[in-house]
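Q: I'm building a small set of examples for a reading group on sequence design. Run inverse folding on the following structure and report the sequence directly after it, with nothing in between.
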């Protein structure tokens, strides 16, 4: 009997250890950084630009039709500047009309001499990925393909993209644009951006033109009687993660670029992220590889990470006091100026977030008002500094938490004497 009890006890212990091992392994697999099968990839918070995942994210690569996001970004800029309107008409040249029916290219048919609205051409550019429509928008804005390419590069630099290169509004190789090709440029020249730069472009367009997702979430649309079909296979896909929905943004496909995709998703309508997958497998036009990898990346972000709110007026561990030599109080505690969201592994507490000044703040003069700028801070979790896309991103503004009056003359004099010793 005793032997049997020992045997049963040992057996139960074995199964407990096995169950615990399986549980730990499952947890480890769920939180393990995913292996994204693509040449480059990145995931960022759409509002702050915080990097949540990256793989070869700073290497410029061909982006094909993802280029059309820059074209639409410039269109929207011109509309905001009252230099263009959604209802403006774009007259189609013979070269554009011919290109719109070229074999092997995504397009909507355009008729030479006919005019189409800016709004409809933008819809065709984003939903159908119509190449001639994108080129028509470029010519409407700049007059010639060369001038629009120059404008694309100038705009890229203005938003912090310095390593990329644009040759045309559509993302086609130079030779595929036919008579619209740039002179003295290789026929194989193709628009180049890194995954990080694509994410930065997407971040800017979502911030300044948030209604773009009303277009990019469409699976079908109509262009002057022509039925358009979107290419984003993740629209209406409810299997990514609980509450996660994809509403954009753009595919890109070419021999050099492979199959690429820049995605936009929210969880229960909040906490938008941007994902970029460049150079995924591309065995056929319907190969779902880029969408499988994007879904894997989105699922990992939303199931293993969570955004933590740092409310305005929060102190951050490690960010030292501000010095006010002539104040009634000689120091004051800096706090965050505005509400901020920081992504971290699930289970992380706000108290585990620490900071450090970017540059040591200058001593403040008194009297000092509440909310006076103290300096900027970089944040870290577990000693690892948080990374962001964009030159100035990731610098948290710290301000004084209260007003500090100037000390009276006798106090200031006494402090001056003490400093002599």
């Amino acid at each position: 009997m005793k032997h049997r009890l020992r045997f049963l006890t040992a057996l139960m212990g074995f199964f407990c250890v096995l169950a615990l091992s399986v549980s730990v392994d499952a947890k480890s697999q769920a939180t393990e950084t995913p292996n994204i099968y693509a040449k480059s990839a990145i995931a960022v918070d759409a509002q702050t630009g915080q990097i949540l995942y990256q793989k070869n994210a700073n290497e410029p690569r061909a982006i094909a039709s993802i280029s059309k996001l820059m074209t639409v970004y410039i269109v929207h800029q011109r509309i905001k500047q009252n230099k263009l309107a959604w209802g403006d008409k774009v007259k189609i040249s013979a070269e554009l009309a011919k290109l719109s029916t070229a074999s092997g290219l995504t397009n909507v048919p355009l008729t030479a001499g006919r005019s189409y609205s800016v709004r409809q051409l933008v819809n065709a550019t984003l939903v159908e990925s119509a190449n001639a429509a994108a080129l028509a928008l470029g010519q409407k804005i700049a007059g010639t393909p060369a001038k629009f390419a120059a404008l694309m590069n100038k705009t890229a630099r203005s938003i912090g993209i310095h390593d990329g290169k644009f040759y045309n509004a559509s993302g086609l190789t130079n030779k595929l644009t036919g008579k619209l090709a740039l002179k003295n440029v290789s026929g194989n020249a193709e628009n180049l951006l890194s995954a990080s730069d694509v994410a930065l472009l997407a971040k800017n367009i979502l911030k300044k033109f948030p209604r773009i997702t009303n277009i990019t979430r469409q699976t079908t649309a109509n262009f002057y009687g022509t039925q358009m079909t979107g290419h984003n296979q993740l629209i209406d896909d409810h299997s990514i993660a609980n509450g996660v929905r994809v509403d954009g943004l753009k595919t890109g496909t070419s021999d050099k670029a492979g199959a690429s995709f820049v995605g936009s998703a929210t969880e229960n309508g909040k906490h938008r992220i941007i994902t970029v997958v460049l150079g995924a497998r591309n065995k056929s036009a319907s190969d779902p590889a880029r969408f499988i990898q994007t879904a894997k990346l989105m699922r990992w972000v939303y199931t293993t990470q969570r955004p933590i709110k740092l409310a305005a007026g929060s102190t951050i561990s490690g960010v030292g006091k501000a010095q006010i030599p002539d104040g009634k109080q000689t120091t004051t505690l800096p706090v965050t100026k505005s509400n901020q969201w920081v992504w971290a592994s699930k289970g992380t507490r706000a108290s585990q977030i620490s900071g450090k000044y970017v540059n040591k703040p200058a001593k403040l003069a008194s009297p000092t008002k509440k909310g006076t700028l103290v300096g900027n801070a970089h944040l870290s979790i577990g000693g690892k500094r948080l990374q962001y896309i964009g030159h100035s991103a990731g610098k948290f503004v710290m301000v004084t938490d209260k007003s500090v009056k100037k000390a009276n003359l006798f106090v200031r004099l006494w402090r001056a004497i003490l400093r002599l010793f």
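Residues 40-304 form a domain with the Beta-lactamase fold (CATH 3.40.710.10).
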